[in-house]
Fold this protein.
Amino acid sequence: MRDATLGSISSYELRLTFLKFKARVLTMVDSLEGYSYGALEQMLSSAGVNPVHAKPLFSAVQRRLVSKDLSAAEGILPPVARWLSTGNAPVLCPSKQTDCRPSGDGFTEKYMLRLADGAEVEAVRMGFSGRFTACLSTQVGCAMGCVFCATGQMGFSRHLTAGEIVSQAHHVERGLRESHGERLRNIVMMGMGEPLHNFEPVMEALGIITDNRGLNIGPARVAISTVGHIPGILKLARHPKRYSLAVSLHGASDEERGKLIPVNKKWPLADLIDACREYTEIKRARVFFAWTLIGGVNDSADHAFRLAELLKGIDAHVNLIPLNATEGYGGEATDETNVRKFQDIIQASGLPSTVRQRRGIDVAAGCGQLKASRLIKR
């Protein structure tokens, strides 16, 4: 007799649900891109394969970016080829590009990538000739809920694995080599998600990306952006590698910031600033503070003076970002005159400041605009 709890669910629907569940579980077992050099050595050894084969395998995956038929790749000898053909070896990340939007500037491109479980994330290539940057996602959606951020408006679905993060960098790098004959110079963890909420996989991914046997992007050329995840900031301060830290502020009081960044209630501004001071003292490194300028909300001279006072005594650099419009937030960017007045006040206080150049706005690839819009349209 059919279980009454199944109601009128068809066998097809049950099968589809099972396959989606299986795919989601499989993504948690990381792909080959998510294995460091040391992890590959250990995995080969435990499989009865001489760990010396880790070198050509890591090179094929992480430097030459082989994307298919890995067992036939240059340098892959029969013992590794046989192991790869078994059902016990991890496979390459099965991500698929479902959309690509090139900007009119000729340098910026936004990619939509579908993962094994059907989830979609976005990655962006931006920059200029000779200094290209990849902006990578770390989560499907985001739990932080920033009101003006398209990803925050999606809500949180799941964390990405290290392999899913590294595979984004590979995807951008492959396209860059093909279209411009160049290589990535910088990585910014500023795509979909809160990187420090997914700390361990992000650190594993960056360890692989910065390995000189792979993409070889130096830690100094990697920036990690956070909305103010204090536990993650303190862990990053004690992490052996020295990545740049970028902290989103957007308000100089708890009341103002809380309206834009809901997690300010959990991690108040005073505690966040203390954590940033501790970070600078431990790392002996500057913190970059991001301030999204929203017309009539946080762009007045008073806001600028209070921001300068808040950051007094910290080794800080202020990045000013005119708001990029999103469908879910009705605010508008401040005008150019206010941007310059705001920056003048910040610089007069002794703090260095940069107005971030707007790139990829025509393809919704700007700061705060990344969102799996294809999913929403369904």
